[in-house]
């Protein structure tokens, strides 16, 4: 072995070029070199490369081609490419009792299993703006009582091949303490930590601090079979970490074994936890400060995330559910729990086979931590809506309406443990809380499952069995938009008949324009024996243009077009929708000499319906309406007109929506007074109508469930208006209010202008 000692003179010669990179690379790659007892040694802009010949004998070569002992070494803008196939080579650079600074350098290594690029034994290193790459078998760093800082660097490892003994980003011997800091860096490796200890040695805690970095891996760590009592603490600050824990708690015979102790601190950071088919992912203590834990599923396989110690802080858990089969990712806390946490649910979207389903998301021992769904307080699965409720010390999703309010009283009772008059109820939860102290032994995860038995004592769920299940957003929107389509299509029929009533004055021809603005308020209506839609508020705006002419003294015919739109608000959490309609129609009226009249309207409407859950849908609408009445002249300009209307409206079907047929009957009376006022002919009027709509039994379908589109029932309409006529111009203004058991119309205002000749 050639001992390469960098004196002041040799450093000057190296920098001046007398030691060329090529010559040095060949010499050192074949024989290696050592740096001993140097206070200020440096390698700058050097290239070290060796591709080993398989037939080359390495008996004379050191197990570390480059060793640094009792020295301070700076490596700057250099590259190292070492590919050792010999089992005698275990590392590229080994530092003993030394300090290294590595800047803007590139390392690539292929060494046998358990090899490494940079080893720190009783040493420290700072790595800046550099790249480390290795094959799966090779660890990038090895620490034995080492301190390492990696800043603004890239750390890569080739993909793991099945059956290969792969290394880690950091390989740590835990006989002595080691600390690692990673700043502003990225890694993509097979595992983060490879842990080992000498047999019967006392392990020290390994602390990995990650700052503003992203570390991606398959596994967080793996320990050698003889390693015992290993203790690891991940501390993440504004960072992302990915990897399953890969911690065995029992041997092949199911017997408890010593295991790695893992603590995790997430400070404004995210831990992505992949599914691992061999063992549950686990952690001992989980401390979160605006942290996120995201559980990943694999081919629909869900996982249990176990916290053997305490859960504390504030943060978010992202869970996967399959509510159709009442399964979910589950968080199990075996120690104490405190803090506030949000839950984001990603459901499979499959349709539940039955209503009244529930699935447990979180199991705790004390019930002190508070959980809530983020963004919105429900999860839609197929036809039904699930809400988060608290049952005992556990949190679960249930689609029973009666349980929605349950979390509030249970939570409120747990907090006021100080009042002496209510001490009986709050004291009982702590008695249950003390029992989880035994889950220190890993074999007791079976006991935490028992807290789910409080399902029975909770009275709210039993009440919910006879209550309502909650519709999903899509189910509710399908029902509500169907009703909104009908109301928009029917909204202009009565006004059109009023328009025809104005024609009974003898003009030969007319053109007219009419604007209608109204609001409908539909109450929550039943869709099945155990569910109801939310109801909605609907703002309607209609603009109509038409023309007609007299074909005889008693008959006139006309045509019109209209554009209608409406905004539908499904009352809060169900969102909103829109319904638009373009219509064209014809009409005709007969007026007898005795005041009897008969009006008829036929209309076609092209409807467009849209919401976030249903998407955009188009329909055909058809309307036929007929009104008969008789105008009675009472003298002094007074008239009274009893009238009867019957209308049919049909809406086309879709694959999940049946055809809708609605039949509306209306009876009413109109009283008017003619007044001459400074050249104007005024006619104020009042009208009262009783209307009722009946629909055929029709349904919308969501998977195997059918929900009825209920009819709007009966209602009373009160109308006040005035017509003003001067020469060939006529203006009309009308306001109406409708009140019904199911449908209210707080206002309806229409303005009409007509030009006659």
TrEMBL record:
InterPro entries linked: Autotransporte_beta, Autotransporte_beta_dom_sf, Autotransporter_pectin_lyase_C, Bact_Autotransporter_VF, OM_autotransptr_brl_dom, Pectin_lyase_fold/virulence, Pertactin_central
Region feature Disordered, mapped onto this chain: 400-466
Compartments reported by the entry: Secreted
Domain Autotransporter: 504-757
Annotated signal sequence range: 1-25
Superkingdom, taxonomy of origin: Bacteria
Keyword Transferase: no
SUPFAM superfamilies tied to this protein: Autotransporter, Pectin lyase-like
Keywords: Secreted, Signal
Skewed-composition ranges (Low complexity): 418-462
GO cellular component, as recorded: extracellular region; outer membrane
Keyword Secreted: yes
PANTHER family noted in UniProt: ANTIGEN 43-RELATED, AUTOTRANSPORTER
Protein name per its UniProtKB record: Outer membrane autotransporter barrel domain-containing protein
Species of the source: Conservatibacter flavescens
Species classification: Bacteria, Pseudomonadati, Pseudomonadota, Gammaproteobacteria, Pasteurellales
């Amino acid at each position: 072995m050639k001992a390469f000692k960098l004196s002041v003179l040799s450093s000057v010669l190296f920098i001046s070029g007398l030691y060329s990179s090529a010559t040095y690379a060949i010499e050192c790659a074949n024989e290696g070199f050592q740096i001993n007892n140097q206070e200020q040694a440096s390698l700058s802009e050097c290239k070290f490369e060796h591709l080993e010949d398989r037939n080359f004998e390495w008996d004379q070569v050191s197990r570390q081609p480059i060793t640094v002992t009792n020295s301070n070494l700076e490596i700057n803008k250099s590259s190292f490419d070492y590919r050792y196939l010999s089992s005698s080579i275990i590392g590229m650079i080994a530092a003993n009792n030394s300090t290294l600074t590595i800047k803007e350098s590139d390392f690539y290594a292929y060494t046998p299993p358990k090899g490494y690029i940079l080893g720190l034994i009783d040493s420290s290193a700072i790595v800046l703006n550099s790249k480390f790459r290795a094959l799966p078998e090779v660890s990038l760093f090895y620490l034995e009582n080492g301190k390492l800082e990696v800043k603004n660097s890239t750390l890569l490892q080739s993909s793991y091949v099945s059956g290969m003994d792969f290394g880690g980003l950091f390989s740590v011997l835990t006989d002595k303490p080691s600390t690692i800091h990673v700043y502003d860096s990225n890694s993509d490796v097979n595992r983060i930590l490879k842990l080992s200890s000498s047999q019967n040695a006392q392990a020290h805690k390994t602390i990995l601090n990650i700052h503003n970095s992203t570390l991606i891996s398959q596994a967080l760590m793996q320990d050698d079979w003889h390693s015992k009592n290993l203790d690891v603490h991940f501390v993440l600050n504004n960072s992302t970490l990915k990897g399953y824990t890969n911690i065995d708690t029992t041997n092949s015979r199911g017997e408890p074994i010593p295991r790695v102790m893992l603590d995790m601190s997430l400070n404004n950071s995210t831990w992505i936890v992949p599914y691992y088919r061999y063992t549950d992912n686990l952690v001992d203590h989980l401390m979160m400060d605006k942290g996120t834990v995201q559980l990943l599923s694999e081919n629909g396989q869900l996982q249990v995330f176990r916290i053997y110690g305490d859960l504390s802080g504030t943060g978010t858990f992202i869970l996967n559910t399959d509510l159709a089969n009442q399964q979910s990712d589950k968080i199990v806390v075996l120690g104490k729990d405190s803090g506030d946490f949000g839950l984001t649910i990603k459901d499979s979207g499959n349709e539940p086979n039955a209503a009244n389903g529930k699935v447990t998301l979180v199991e705790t021992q004390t019930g002190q931590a508070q959980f809530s769904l983020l963004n919105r307080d429900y999860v839609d699965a197929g036809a039904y809506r699930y809400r988060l409720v608290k049952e005992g010390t556990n949190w679960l999703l249930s689609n029973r309406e009666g349980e929605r309010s349950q979390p509030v009283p249970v939570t409120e009772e747990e907090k006021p443990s100080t009042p002496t008059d209510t001490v009986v109820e709050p004291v009982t939860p702590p008695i249950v809380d003390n029992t989880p102290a035994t889950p220190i032994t890993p074999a007791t995860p079976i006991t935490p499952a028992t807290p789910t038995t409080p399902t029975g004592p909770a009275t709210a769920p039993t009440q919910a069995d006879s209550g309502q299940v909650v519709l999903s957003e899509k189910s509710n929107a399908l029902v509500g938009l169907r009703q909104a389509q009908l109301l928009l299509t029917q909204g202009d029929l009565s006004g059109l008949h009023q328009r025809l009533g104005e024609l009974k004055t003898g003009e030969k021809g007319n053109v007219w324009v009419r604007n209608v603005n109204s609001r409908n308020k539909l109450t929550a209506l039943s869709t099945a024996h155990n569910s109801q839609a939310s109801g909605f508020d609907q703002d309607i705006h209609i603009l109509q243009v038409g023309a007609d002419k007299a074909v005889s003294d008693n008959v006139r015919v006309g045509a019109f077009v209209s554009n209608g739109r409406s905004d539908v608000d499904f009352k809060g959490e169900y969102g909103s929708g829109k319904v638009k309609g373009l219509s064209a129609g014809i009409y005709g009226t007969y007026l007898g000499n005795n005041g009897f009249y008969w009006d008829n309207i036929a209309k076609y409407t092209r409807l467009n319906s849209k919401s976030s859950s249903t998407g955009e849908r188009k329909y055909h609408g058809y309307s036929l309406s007929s009104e008969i009445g008789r105008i009675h002249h009472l003298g002094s300009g007074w008239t009274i007109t009893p009238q009867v209307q019957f209308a049919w409206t049909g809406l086309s079907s879709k694959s999940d929506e049946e055809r809708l047929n609605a039949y509306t009957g209306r009876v009413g009376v109109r009283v008017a007074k003619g007044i001459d006022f400074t050249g104007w002919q005024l006619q104020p009027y009042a009208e009262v109508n009783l209307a009722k709509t009946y629909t055929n039994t029709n349904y919308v379908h969501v998977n195997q469930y059918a929900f009825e589109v209920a009819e709007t029932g009966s209602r009373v309409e009160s109308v006040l208006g005035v017509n003003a006529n001067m020469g060939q111009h006529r203006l009309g203004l009308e306001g109406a209010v409708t009140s019904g058991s199911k449908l209210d119309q707080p206002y309806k205002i229409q303005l009409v202008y007509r030009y006659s000749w």
